[in-house]
Write a structure and sequence with these properties.
alpha+beta; ten-stranded mixed sheet; 31 strands
Length: about 800
């Protein structure tokens, strides 16, 4: 080639070089360029530089153009839709015998296949990282949620470039790609609008993102992003709710895509935050379940088990496992407790049904395109088992429940507010045990199916002929990507963006589509989360007994999990629900499986074992944009700064100083962290400076101090001093409000926020987003109507700490 180029006229050589250098390059390199033809043309275009085949002369009239051929999807390639809900147990949905009506899930099951031995990782970030990568969660640095990342390869939350996502792979092979809903895989210190954005959806190969970052989101006041831009679509829209908005946006995307490029397949990843706490839903959807749970959690669990057997989604010989100790028996509760706890489940059920309804609207949009038969829809009901993180009695504030317990007297005052914007509610963990029927344990517990087994449906009318069939092959969330690539005719890539790829840990499930009795191709799978661990191998499961209960978020762990955890043994080929512990009967089998677990742990970055949970959220464990800084300066418009990228306002002294100019009728927020469920705000209302500090949504934990004098028009310095008692975490504090160097108000609160103010709200300057610290004082955005010259924060440490 070089000799031929040297013989060309100089102008033509230059033109060829410039033209070639500007051609689009396919970024995903595949191990093969072709695979065997099947339902459609599966040819994958070779990864070669464009060789200009036209003719270039001095004049265009004597030249022949030749456009480079861009990468395109295989002819007739299917659309792909992955749907995932959040914190939903195996026994929750009607599709798998549960008490909550999910007609969209039911309909997909009737037209496709139900899988009753499908598994997740027992926690959200790890499951979601495994889902989109096809690798075990520790291999994508996601051994825990991102807020709990620690400095080990399996746990640092930095998904390696050697594990490209399904979004990247499909995009580079000609699909349009979009992500709606929850994104809980951005490292805590990379979640601000300062980036970097390489681990946001747009950096992972998704051309469009509409959703939120983090573990959960207020459904009425979410902290949303469109791509990497913060948005507040709820402002001015009193009927706004996130699940409807997500569906509206996804439907618009699908319709526009079909109008503009119907020949191009699309990939929609739709992962609602429902039914993770807070459980929010419109009142009419909650009302559908009035009285449906008055019988209590034991009877709901038993009823679900009976329906599961009747439906055939569990084998007829399945035993209902013994109920985990710790939850009270329903008949021992007071009348108020029964009323409130039953309503907790009514709200949860309404939220999940509402989410399912809106998922149906997205599927209807696919139907409108006429492409439903050629669309792979994978609907996973939950990213782990039902959650036991709501305490024994449930809570109206998931964030504050650990350090600010609620009693039934307060809860009853919130009865009519459950599910509304005024609660961040979660149900009693006894409901989680019921919704995981027939299994034991819950979310977080990777050792048992109550934490890891989720109902899953695959619909692909073009290929699946056994409509309504049940499949019982043992599979895991890492098997989804290989299944999609198999169906789409796209080989697993060997290099992506110049980076050699780690082979996927998952296997394709396509072999099971047309044979319900075929043997599973997944013979071995390890599980681990906070040292709760298990190993599946050829019909046997060895599992540890949980040491710390999943409803205990702080404390209760051991420093030596490899030594202190007991082991159990189950023959799950015959014992679907893990009801009969055979550890004493078959100690040799148990030993073989224990050794196999540690072999898998070493191969998959599981070690070292760490049994802690909430303790990992402490500042200083992870990299931080604020580490080592004690002085911060902000200006108007600095909003939506995540708490992980903001100054640390807990467990130490600090001062906030606002340099402002005001006119008459001054009002607005100067600075705020968090909101109604935990936070503080420095603001002006009716010309008077006010400081609010809120530990939780209970009125007794709200402190309000206010200047008795109005501000005159002009320049002022407003200061808040937070004087922490010291001696531990979450202790009391005195607060002093000053104007122009003179103290104007002071107050005290006997307990402060222990670790974080919020899971989804932010640090805002000059206005507020999300929820206000106190609705009776202001509502968002309450933008400051004066001039905010500068706002400073000075952290002063905890000199009085023991």
């Amino acid at each position: 080639m070089k000799n031929k180029i040297c013989q060309l006229p100089v102008l033509i050589v230059v033109a060829l070089i410039l033209f070639s250098c500007n051609q689009p390059q396919t970024k995903t390199e595949t191990a093969e360029n072709k695979i065997a033809p099947g339902e459609f043309d599966r040819t994958i275009l070779p990864i070669l530089p464009h060789e200009f085949a036209g003719k270039v002369d001095t004049n265009a009239s004597q030249s022949t153009p030749d456009f480079p051929v861009e990468v395109s999807a295989p002819k007739g390639a299917p659309n792909v839709v992955i749907i995932m809900t959040d914190d939903v147990g195996f026994g929750a949905s009607s599709t798998f015998g549960g008490p909550i009506q999910t007609p969209v899930f039911d309909a997909l099951a009737a037209s496709g296949l139900r899988y009753n031995e499908f598994h997740t990782t027992a926690l959200c970030s790890p499951t979601r990282a495994a889902l989109i990568s096809g690798r075990n969660h520790h291999n994508v640095a996601s051994g825990d949620i991102t807020e709990f990342a620690t400095g080990y390869d399996g746990y640092n939350s930095l998904v390696p470039k050697s594990c490209a996502s399904i979004g990247e792979i499909l995009k580079d092979n000609g699909w349009n790609t979009g992500w709606w809903g929850k994104m809980h895989n951005v490292p805590d210190w990379k979640s601000s609008t300062s980036g970097p954005f390489d681990l946001w959806p747009n950096g992972l190969g998704f051309e469009y993102f509409y959703g939120f970052l983090g573990g959960d989101s207020h459904q009425w006041r979410p902290a949303l992003y469109q791509n990497t831009t913060p948005i507040e679509p709820y402002i001015g829209n009193p009927d706004y709710i996130l699940d409807k908005d997500l569906a509206d946006n996804a439907v618009a995307y699908i319709r526009k895509h079909n109008s503009v490029s119907p020949q191009k397949p699309f990939f929609v990843y739709y992962c609602t935050g429902t039914a993770h706490a807070p459980h929010h839903a419109p009142k009419d959807w909650i009302a559908k379940y009035k009285g449906k749970f008055d019988q209590g959690w034991e009877k709901v669990r038993q009823e679900t088990y009976e329906r599961q057997k009747k439906l055939g989604v569990i084998p007829a010989n399945t035993k209902l496992t013994a109920r985990n100790e710790g939850a009270p028996l329903w008949d021992t509760l007071s009348a108020d407790q029964k009323k409130f706890y039953a309503h907790e489940m009514e709200v949860y059920a309404g939220a999940l049904s509402f989410a399912d309804y809106n998922i149906g609207r997205v599927i209807d949009a696919v139907k409108e395109t006429g492409q439903l038969d050629n669309t792979i829809i994978i609907y996973i009901m939950g990213d782990n088992g039902a959650s036991a993180e709501g305490t024994v009695q449930g809570t109206t504030n998931e964030v504050g429940s650990t350090s600010f317990p609620e009693d039934i007297k307060f809860q009853m005052t919130q009865y009519d507010k459950l599910g509304s914007m005024y609660t961040y509610n979660h149900y009693s963990y006894a409901w989680a045990l019921a919704l995981n029927a027939p299994f034991q344990w819950t979310k977080q517990v990777a050792s048992h199916f109550g934490g890891t087994r989720n109902g899953m449906v695959i619909s692909y009318p073009k290929m699946i002929k056994d409509k309504g069939g049940l499949r019982s092959q043992f599979h895991h969330v890492i098997d989804i990507v290989p299944t999609i690539l198999d169906l789409c005719g796209v080989p697993q890539p060997s290099r992506v963006n110049g980076v050699d790829q780690r082979p996927m840990d998952g296997v394709s499930m396509v072999y099971s589509f047309n044979d319900s009795n075929v043997k599973s191709t997944r013979n071995t799978q390890y599980f681990e989360m906070m040292s709760n661990r298990a190993i599946y191998h050829d019909g046997w499961v060895a599992a540890t007994t949980p040491y710390r209960k999943p409803w205990q978020t702080l404390g209760g762990e051991t420093k030596y999990p490899s030594r202190d955890f007991k082991w159990e043994l189950y023959h799950v080929s015959d014992d679907f629900s893990e009801a009969d512990n055979l550890a004493e009967k078959y100690p040799d089998t148990l030993k073989v499986l224990q050794d196999l677990f540690y072999e898998e742990a070493k191969k998959n970055n599981v070690l070292p074992l760490d049994a802690t949970f909430g303790e990992r959220a402490a500042p200083g464990i992870r990299p931080s944009l604020t580490s080592g800084r004690t002085h911060f300066e902000y200006y108007e418009g600095a909003v939506r700064i995540p708490e992980g990228s903001a100054p640390v306002f807990v467990n130490q002294d600090w001062t906030i100083t606002a340099d402002i100019n005001t006119t008459a009728n001054a009002k607005g927020v100067l600075a705020t962290m968090g909101g109604y469920f935990g936070g503080f705000a420095l603001l002006i209302k009716d010309d008077k400076p006010i400081f609010l500090y809120r530990g939780t949504n209970q009125p007794k934990w709200l402190l309000s101090i206010q200047s008795p004098q109005k501000l005159s028009a002009g320049h002022h310095i407003i200061t808040v001093d937070f004087l922490y008692d010291g001696g531990g975490f979450g202790k009391g504090a005195n607060m002093i409000l000053s104007v122009d160097g003179k103290q104007v108000a002071k107050g005290r609160i006997e307990q402060t926020v222990l670790q974080r103010f919020s899971l989804d709200e932010t640090w805002d300057i000059g206005e507020d987003t999300g929820t206000p610290v106190e609705f009776n004082v202001y509502d968002v955005p309450f933008k400051f109507n004066g001039q905010l010259n500068k706002l400073s924060v000075d952290l002063k440490g905890n000199k009085k700490s023991a």
